[in-house]
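User: For documentation purposes, I need each entry recorded in a consistent format: the amino acid sequence on its own, followed directly by the corresponding structure tokens. There are two entries in this batch. Please keep commentary to a minimum and don't merge the entries.

Assistant: Recorded as requested. Entry 1:
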Amino acid sequence: MNGTIGMNEQAILRDNVLEHEWHPVCKSADVTSKPVSATVLGERVAIYRNSRGVHALRDLCVHRGAMLSKGWIDNEKLVCPYHGWQYDDSGRCVCIPAQGKDDQIPPRAKAVKYHCREKYGIVWVCIGEPKAELPDFEEFDNPDYRPLVCGPYHVEAAGTRVIENFTDFAHLMYVHGGLLGHPDYSELPDFQVFKEENRVYTGDVPIFQPVAHSGSEHKEGTTYVYVKEVFRPLAARLSKRDAATGQTLWIMLTVLPVSEKECIVYMPVSRNYAFDVPDSQFMQFQDTVFEQDKWIIETQKPELLPLDLQAELNHRADRLSVAYRRWITQMGMRVGMI
């Protein structure tokens, strides 16, 4: 780990919805003794850990613009690598080595502090004022299940396109043919979509999968019952239940918007079966599946998600993605959409 998480620096993006959302910036396990950097809506953020938990500051020393994430932690403080200025958890500079110990530190010597949380094995940052707290999902908290975090996956596409792909059922038989579906079983059952203030979601959607999952009791394929949900503009999850045994795989997909057409995806995954199968095997499977998604997403035109539902031809199989587009449009979201 080289201490840098993110991609090319971009112009800061303004979105009255996404500025006040929680965004995944790194795995919790990646924030150890050194600070790391992430880019949220074009804004560089330094994330570091001390005995009081994880913290996030604008990745910019107010003195001469050096990246704080290139510095280090000393006595619980984040130290700028350029001139050794030290910042506490609030962002206040508490030490300027070049001045006398009795000299007053200027009140303006303060870095911008962002809201920061750890949940689901991920560090989350909000660069505005959080609209809501992160939800509680039993499958990622219950010790009877086996959670793990897949990713990060770097995608040269809008985060909205990634979320919409996650809501789609009909691509399973083609993009993931042989893994999650097969063209011979392309016909989808009629399914319902429901909308609430803070989410859009489906009812049960049974889909036949010719090849069973790792750790499954089946030697051949079986029917899995999906439920998909988008619970924040750039965060969704699904449950995938074996109709015969009740064995269930849960997947959360959450997107860090780096820029309009660039994002990083984190994927917490949990299961209630096959605890004897190495986690690495499940992670490798998710890596394979997402790589199949990625190349499709990165080739879509237009790159941004169309606001106008007449711009693309929609089918009844797209009803969840249509509901998603309407939902985020009503919110007033703009980044990643046209």
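Entry 2:
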Amino acid sequence: MKSFIITENDTNQRLDKFLKKLFPLATRGLLYKLNRTNKIKVNKKREDNEYKLQLWDVVNIFLNDFDFEKLAKENSERPLSLNEAGLRGAIDKKDIVFEDGFLLVVNKKAWVNVHPGDHKTKEISLIDQVQDYLWDKLNSLTFKPSLAHRIDRDTSWIVIIAKKKDILTRLVEDFKNHKNIKKYYLTVVSGILDKKEWIINKKLERIIDAKNENKVKVSNEWQSAITYYKVLDEFKFEKESFSLLEVEIKTGRMHQIRVHLSDLWHPVIWDKTYWNKSLNYYLSKELGISRQFLHASKIEFMHYGTGKRITLEARLKDDMKEFLEKVRKI
């Protein structure tokens, strides 16, 4: 017999779902049979598969060691860390913006996938890095730290990872409903804007059948989208001019910042979808730019672990920082 004490991150889930996570190689039919034949007990009695596990419940599993390890094979051994496996991509400590017992906040590098298999690549994803970094700090049987929100691969971002299941649930809901969240970005756009502060209130439509990428366009009959920007600096390089903006989005539509600024004829520089490709080539050749200059720099949100609002800022990535230093000296 093996016994498991239900801790915070394993509570409020159905017994059958808990067992499926514990025994990834078992079919649901087998798990139901084990419960029906009294091989599974919760607090020394049989519970229905729909029973919601509570804090400090004790789950007893009456299997011999061979059968237990056979069903739990995928969970039976600690996987090699990224370093042990000789893989590159472990989290750089300087990219950790904040960490406590409830949250890990990371300043994601550009060109890093957030989940395995995104964009059909085999690169080490951000969530792989996070779970590798946090492995020895976790004691949950079935919960793994998870991202509270999605992010673009080619954008540097401040990313919130929840260590607790209840915290994750509440943050995901806040991001989904744009509640209790304020997101600020720094971006470099083409040209000098006439209005130094402005609210862009234009609806956006996603073009479902777009090739290469699911593109978005301004539309009068689709989802509302509100973007506020403020010009922080202006500079020129040869015949080109640029502006550094702080942007706050009041909604979270796909490509919202990029499409709204492009519609003003001041697109984010090196945006391969909503900007002039010949200018991309020029900036790449003359200034070494190789990705769109959009950086999630600051976020305000409710820290549900402490019950207080928190504001966090992430430093500029080296490529944006070096570009700004260079053009400001010209």
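Summary note for entry 2:
The CA atoms of residues 187 and 294 lie 5 Å apart.
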